[in-house]
Amino acid sequence: MANVSVYNIEGKEVGSLELNDAIFGVEINEHLVHMAVVQQLANNRQGTQKAKTRSEVSGGGRKPWRQKGTGHARQGSTRAPQWTGGGVVFAPTPRDYSFKMNKKEKRAALKSALTSRVVDSKIVVLDEIKFNEIKTKNFANVMKNLKLDKALMVIGDNDANVILSARNIPDVKVSQPNTINVYDILKYDTLVVTKDAVAKIEEVYA
Predict the structure, then answer these.
(1) Would strands 123-126 and 172-175 be described as parallel, antiparallel, or unpaired?
(2) pLDDT for 142-193, tens place per residue?
(3) Tens digit of pLDDT for each residue in 79-100?
(4) Which PANTHER family does the record cross-reference, listed alphabetically (predicted)?
(5) Protein fold of 2-46+98-205
(6) For a pLDDT cut of 70, what percent of the chain falls above it?
(7) Buried b or exposed e, range 144-171, using 16+ CB within 10 angstroms
(8) Where are the domains of the chain?
(9) Counting beta carbons within 10 angstroms of the beta carbon of residue 40, is it exposed (0 to 12), middle (13 to 18) or buried (19 or more)?
(10) Cα angle for residues 78, 50, 85 (degrees, 5° grid)
(11) Across 73-84, average pLDDT
């Protein structure tokens, strides 16, 4: 089992924690990790892009000039793709970009992402984080004490004071164990997890 240090919000080491190898020590499957990231980005796409083909643009019903004898190239419509105001040749149409992954694949990808953070020493475990009020400065001080800039923080419960205090800090996101995903884990430089969040992750994904 991987043994990681536990810090308090002042940035001081206050102990250590054994991480479950079934989640934080699996064999990293890069293919599934890549697929999970592509799936999340694809599923977030609106797919509403639209342009008109030559059959959909208005006008151009008659032949602009006779077939032969004018010296011009033959033309059948002023709405052909080569004309200004003409239709687009292979115009994009609204479509659904989303695709599905099996539950086992999703879980394996998440475990691989968590393991990669441990292997790269990009995980920080906090004993707890609590604020008495919603104040951005409080959260910024915690990040400064931990010497972090871009981080994903996973907390054990839905603490509004912590979540709202981090809302205005760029490159910081606060999540809960049931909302973490592969894309966010890899997007941020460091994964910060509270001890109770570690316990919940091991309980949910074991």
Answers:
(1) unpaired
(2) 999 999 989 999 998 888 999 999 999 999 999 999 999 999 999 999 999 9
(3) 999 999 999 999 999 999 999 9
(4) 50S RIBOSOMAL PROTEIN L4 (PTHR10746), LARGE RIBOSOMAL SUBUNIT PROTEIN UL4M (PTHR10746:SF6)
(5) Ribosomal Protein L4; Chain: A; (3.40.1370)
(6) 100
(7) eebebeebbbbbbeebebbbbbbeeeee
(8) 2-46+98-205, 50-93
(9) middle
(10) 20
(11) 93
Please check whether residue 123 is in contact with residue 190, taking contact to mean a CB–CB distance below 8 angstroms: yes
Q: In 10 A of CB 100, how many CB atoms?
A: 9
Amino acid sitting at position 74: R
- 3-state secondary structure (DSSP) of residue 157: coil
From residue 189, give the alpha-carbon distance in Å to each of 123, 148, 171, 197. 9, 9, 9, 19
| 196 touches 157 (CB < 8 A) | yes
**What letter does residue 62 receive in the DSSP assignment?**
S
192 and 152 in contact (C-beta within 8 Å)? yes
Is the pTM here over 0.85, yes or no?
no
Distance CA(126)–CA(74), nearest Å, equals: 74
The C-alpha atoms of residue 63 and residue 129 are separated, in whole angstroms, by: 74
